[in-house]
Amino acid sequence: MSWKYSVIKALRSRPYLVLLFGIGCLLAGFSAVAIASPEVLKASGIYVLAGFMALPIVAATIIEWRAVAIPEPHQPPEEPKSSLEENTSSEAGRFCKDLRRRLEEASRITHATFVNNQQRTQDEWLKTAEQWSRGSFAAYGPRYSDVLLESYRAATKSVFATSIPDYSETWDSAFGDRLLEAHKTNDHRAHVDRVFVFDTRGSINDAAIRQMKHQNDAGVRIWVYIDAEDPTFQFPPGISRDFTIIDDAIVATTRSYGRQGEGLEAVWEYRDETHLRQVRIIRDKLLAGSIKLEKFLQQYDSINEHSST
What we know:
CATH topology of the largest domain: Endonuclease, Chain A
Number of domains: 2
Order of helices and strands: HHHHHHEHEHHEHEEEEHEH
Oligomer: single chain
CATH superfamily of the largest domain: Endonuclease Chain A
Strand content: 5-15%
Helix content: 55-70%
Structural class: alpha+beta
CATH architecture of the largest domain: 2-Layer Sandwich
Number of helices: 12
Distance between the termini: 104 Å
Largest sheet: 8 strands, mixed
């Protein structure tokens, strides 16, 4: 800090120094008059004049010393704002700012029941936010439907999905038709491959054949995978057999199936490279061990004709 700013700061912090500084300036004026007037200089004497001239210097020195000695007032460090709070133009930024304000308002309510319920809800939020920080989120029921439809419509290159018998009721529902419509109306014309996974050939019934034909007619490339007939691959434990890969980057794994499109739940993952590599390997293995629907139908019809004779 420069000398003049130190003096100004000291004068603001210690008003009594203004008086000392004023006296010094007054004596400096007298000294100037004495220098200009020989009579005054002769009457005062050189020693008095020297003392007068020294006083402003002394006063300034005292003020400077006091200024340096004055400690900075203690101010608590400003809490750093997150990038989301600073970027109030983003939806997430506005959400964080509004959430903080509302939580501060809620903290004024001290009733035990209210506080306990608020704490439970906040714990749920933290679990959800922890999922978000890993680049994943879970969607259930109607939200599952909305997210899956949006994912299919937003695909820019490709959609790969499996379908197991537990999902068959969804394909027979109105939601199943909406999923096929989302493929058909995709603005980017992303190609869609769907592998229907069965344990054995005998578990493939007429309803499954009808579903696969319907999707094939809607423009989806259908593959048939029969687990018992592929000795080269086994599903890893803990990995769902029903999953979707969007644009070879986003993974949605079905966790529950429900009925008629209701009760469905899945986890979407946008950042888990380890899991993405796993499902890519599974995809490649499934396609390598699958049969295209056209070829499978030829075999299926041939078997049915042979069994009928």
